[in-house]
Amino acid sequence: MMRRLLTIASLTVLTTLPSPFVQELAAQGQGQGQRPRPEQRRGDDRPSQSEKISRTLNLGADGEIHIANISGDIVVTRNSGNSVALEIVKTARAGTDAEAKEALSFVNVEVVERGTLAEIRARYPGFENRRGDRRGMRVDVAMRIAAPAGTRITVKSISGDITVSDIAGALALETVSGSVRLSNTGRLATAKSISGDIEMADSKADGALSAGSVSGTIRLRGVTARTLSLSTVSGNVNVEDVTSERVDAQAISGNVAFMGNLAPNGRYEFTSHSGNVRIAVDGKTGFQLEATSFSGGISSDLPISAEGGKQPRSLRGKFGDGSATLELTSFSGSISITRR
């Protein structure tokens, strides 16, 4: 058990590091200097210039979209028809209006349509060519996409929030500095952020679903998946009313909380290195319990038939028919099991 705790940090960081493709995007955007979070950009009151691009893409009811962005929020919603409505807004900020207008020309947005596949990519060649003369210029590219419900979407971003709602197609979402928010989605596969929260509500996955953040909280409510793998280094993990046969939730510096029903024969592992583990269940499904806290207390409102007697820092036993498996671990926090 100790060995498992000590390896959580390295495992979590490995699963949430940006992909090589995102690292390539970051290299492109180096001309922007340090990339602030979206809320910081909104407070930038320097002179600005904007340019709007609108396109209609005919990908069919179950097409595919690949999006690569460097700086700017991305919002995907459902379109009632079979076409994709694309709206791109480039916003440049600089010391003067003239410089902001010039900065707009430094950024190109490529939209390539090939049958049922569309690729949307922001490129910053102007910034790459002006490494020593950028005068604090910044260009954000915001994207709003209304797509048919069955569209498959992949998003890779450096700085900006990703928001997806009412899309049933397969989703793979990744941002470095920003949050990922999903609601009423049907086939989510991955959601990752280095510096931002992951929020999912009323969403489904065909099989396994993974979500990870290095510096952010993970919140799931009403999510259905065969297995859930959730990890954060600095933040909390909150899981409520999920339907899953297996849940593995880990936090290095934060609390882990689960509130909902256990599946018969399901397996649930909740671990925090520096935080508390809180479980609230309805008590209708029995479970085998193994709880260990190295420097905190363990409490249960449910009657646990302890095996080998209750120890100050560990509790092993059974509740009810013991059909599910519940493994709870905290290094420097307390563990509690309550009836919902």
Report on this model:
It is a single chain. A 14-stranded mixed β-sheet has the order 5-6-2-8-10-12-14-16-18-20-26-22-25-24, covered by helices on one side. A 13-stranded mixed β-sheet has the order 1-4-7-3-9-11-13-15-17-19-21-27-23. The chain has helices spanning 2-16, 20-28, 38-42, 97-104, 125-128; strands spanning 48-57, 64-71, 74-78, 84-93, 108-114, 117-123, 138-147, 152-159, 162-165, 170-177, 180-183, 187-195, 198-201, 208-215, 218-221, 227-234, 237-240, 246-253, 256-260, 267-272, 277-281, 287-293, 298-300, 305-306, 314-319, 324-330, 335-339. It has a single domain, classed as Pectate Lyase C-like. It has 340 residues and is mainly β. Strand 24 (305-306) and strand 25 (314-319) form a beta hairpin.
Q: Hey, roughly how much beta strand do the residues contain?
A: over 45%
User: What can be said about the biggest beta sheet?
Assistant: 14 strands, mixed
CATH class: Mainly Beta
- Going by helix content, strand content and strand pairing, the class is mainly beta
If you average the pLDDT, what whole number results?
A: 86
Shape: elongated
DSSP strand tally:
27
> Into which percent range does the helicity of residues fall?
10-25%
* Alpha carbon gyration radius: 23 Å
Q: Which key phrases capture this entry?
A:
13-stranded mixed beta sheet, 5 helices, 340 residues, mainly beta, Pectate Lyase C-like, 14-stranded mixed beta sheet
